[in-house]
Design brief:
Elements (H helix, E strand, L loop, with lengths): L1 H12 L3 E3 L1 H9 L5 E4 L5 H14 L2 E4 L4 H7 L7 E4 L2 H14 L1 H34 L7
Parallel strand pairs: 2-3
Antiparallel strand pairs: 1-4, 2-4
Helix pairs in contact: 1-5, 2-3, 5-6
Length: about 140
C-alpha cells in the first residue's frame, strides 16, 4: 500500500492528480480523469457522486484500502476522500500496485487500465507518425 501512496504523491507533484470532489467532477466532466480513487472511509454520498462522475467521464474507479487521513498525507492534504489520476500511465501503475495488494479485488481493474494504456500508446504513436508524414509531405498511395 505504501508504494501506491508514494505513486499518488508523485502524480500530485507531476500535476497529474486532482483531489477533492469539485476538481474530480470537473476533470471527469472534461474527460481528463483516467481513474477515480476513493478512501475506504469515504461517505456513501461521496461514493455515489464519485461513481456518477466516473460514469459521466467514462473512466474507471476504485475504493482503496487506505483511509482518508493516509490518502490525504500522500497528496499533501489533511484528509482526502476522493481523487482522480489524469494520466493513463499513472493510472495503469496505480492499478498494478492495487492488483499486487489484492489481485482478486483489483485484478480486473488493472487489466482494463492496461488495455486503455496500450490503446493510448497506439494512438500517440499514430499521431506521431501522422505528424511526421505531414511535415515530410508524404502522400498516400492510391490504389
Amino acid at each position: 500500500m505504501d508504494k501506491l501512496l508514494s505513486l499518488l504523491g508523485l502524480a500530485k507533484k507531476a500535476g497529474r492528480l486532482v483531489s477533492g470532489e469539485e476538481p474530480v467532477g470537473a476533470a471527469a466532466g472534461a474527460h481528463d480523469a483516467r481513474l477515480i480513487l476513493f478512501a475506504s472511509d469515504a461517505a456513501e454520498n461521496s461514493l455515489r457522486r464519485g461513481r456518477h462522475f466516473a460514469e459521466a467521464g467514462d473512466c474507471l474507479w476504485a475504493q482503496l484500502p487506505a483511509d482518508k487521513e493516509a490518502l490525504g498525507r500522500a497528496v499533501g492534504r489533511p484528509t482526502c476522500a476522493m481523487l482522480a489520476l489524469t494520466d493513463i500511465g499513472f493510472a495503469e501503475a496505480a492499478g498494478k500496485r492495487l492488483a499486487a495488494v489484492d489481485a482478486e479485488r483489483y485484478g480486473a481493474l488493472a487489466e482494463r487500465l492496461g488495455v486503455k494504456a496500450a490503446r493510448s500508446a497506439e494512438r500517440k504513436e499514430e499521431r506521431k507518425q501522422h505528424d511526421k508524414n505531414s511535415r515530410a509531405g508524404k502522400k498516400r498511395n492510391k490504389k
